[in-house]
TrEMBL record:
The lineage of its organism: Bacteria, Bacillati, Chloroflexota, Chloroflexia, Chloroflexales. One of its GO terms (biological process) is proteolysis. Belongs to the SOS response-associated peptidase family. It comes from Chloroflexus aggregans (strain MD-66 / DSM 9485). GO terms for molecular function: lyase activity; peptidase activity; single-stranded DNA binding. SUPFAM superfamilies: BB1717-like (SSF143081). This is Abasic site processing protein. It is an enzyme of class 3 (hydrolase). Pfam families: SRAP. Its EC number is 3.4.-.-. Keywords: Covalent protein-DNA linkage, DNA damage, DNA-binding, Hydrolase, Lyase, Protease.
DNA sequence: CCAGACGTTGTT
DNA sequence: GTCTGG
DNA sequence: CCAGACGTTGTT
DNA sequence: GTCTGG
C-alpha cells in the first residue's frame, strides 16, 4: 500500500512538472503521514491547480471526519464499486506529487522500512481521488486518497501492494474529467511500468514526529 | 419499510 | 447518497 | 503506514 | 486485540 511518503522539491519544479501555478508554502517533507495536509493536483474551475488537502478521504455522507483516517488508500480493483470511492473516481480524480514513498517489509524479526524513488529523482505522481465534506460547523474540508495496485517486481520483495504511479505523459489523461472510465480503470489496474529504485532506511521514519533528509539515508539491512 | 454500513492492510 | 440486511 | 491509547472521578 | 491520531 502506501502509508508514508516524501515530497522535497522546489515550488518551481513542482509547477513545471504539473503545469500549474507555483505553490507558495511548500516545505520539504520526508515523512508525510495520513491525516496530514498534502499537496494535491487537480483540474480546478480555473484550470489546473495545486492545493492542500487532508490525506484520508472523508465521504460526503460521513458523520464525522474521523472515518477518513481509514480511507488513505483505495484498491484499484474495487474502486468502481465502493460507495466511498466510485463517485470520486468518475468525477474527482487528482494526482498527488511525491519524491518517493516508503513500504515496510514484515520479517520474522519485525518490520523494516524501505524507500522507493524514480531514476534521476524524478517527481512521482500518485493516482488519487478527492472529496468535499461539509463539517457540522459549516467548514468545507477537502480530503484525498491514494489508489493502490499489485506490487511490481521492485516492490514485491518488500510488500504486495504499491501506489498507482502516473507517468508525466499521462497527467492530462488521468485528470481530464472527460476521459473514458473503463480506460481509467484499466490504467490503474495495470499502470505503465516504472523503473523504481529501492533501498532500506532506518526506523526513524516509523515515528510521525520525525522529519528531515536523514530519514532517507540508506541504512544497513 | 427502517437501520446501519460505507475501507485497507495484514494476519490467520 | 446508496446499498444491504432484517 | 506506525505509535500509542485503551477509564473514571475529582481536583487544579 | 483494536481503535485513534498523526
Amino acid at each position: 500500500m502506501c502509508g508514508r511518503y516524501t515530497l522535497a522539491v522546489s515550488p518551481a519544479k513542482l509547477a513545471e512538472r504539473f503545469a500549474l501555478p507555483p505553490i507558495s508554502d511548500l516545505q520539504p517533507r520526508y515523512n508525510i503521514a495520513p491525516t496530514q495536509p498534502v499537496v494535491v493536483v487537480r483540474e480546478g474551475n480555473d484550470g489546473r491547480e495545486g492545493v492542500y488537502m487532508r490525506w484520508g478521504l472523508i465521504p460526503s455522507w460521513a458523520k464525522d471526519a474521523s472515518v477518513g483516517a481509514k480511507l488513505i488508500n483505495a484498491r484499484s480493483e474495487t474502486v468502481l464499486e465502493k460507495p466511498s470511492f466510485r463517485t470520486a473516481f468518475r468525477r474527482r480524480r487528482c494526482l498527488i506529487p511525491a519524491s518517493g514513498f516508503y513500504e515496510w517489509q514484515t520479517t520474522a524479526t519485525g518490520k523494516r522500512p524501505f524507500y522507493f524513488t524514480l531514476p534521476d529523482d524524478d517527481l512521482m505522481a500518485f493516482a488519487g481521488l478527492w472529496e468535499q465534506w461539509l463539517a457540522p460547523d459549516g467548514e468545507v474540508i477537502e480530503s484525498c486518497t491514494i489508489l493502490t495496485t499489485t506490487a511490481n517486481e521492485i516492490v514485491t520483495p518488500i510488500h504486495n501492494r504499491m501506489p498507482v504511479i502516473v507517468p508525466s505523459e499521462f497527467t492530462a489523461f488521468w485528470l481530464d474529467p472527460a476521459t473514458d472510465i473503463p480506460r481509467l480503470h484499466a490504467f490503474c489496474l495495470t499502470p505503465p511500468p516504472v523503473a523504481l529504485h529501492r533501498y532500506p532506511v532506518g526506523k526513524a521514519v516509523n515515528q510521525v514526529r520525525n522529519d528531515g533528509p536523514a530519514l532517507i539515508e540508506p541504512a544497513a539491512l
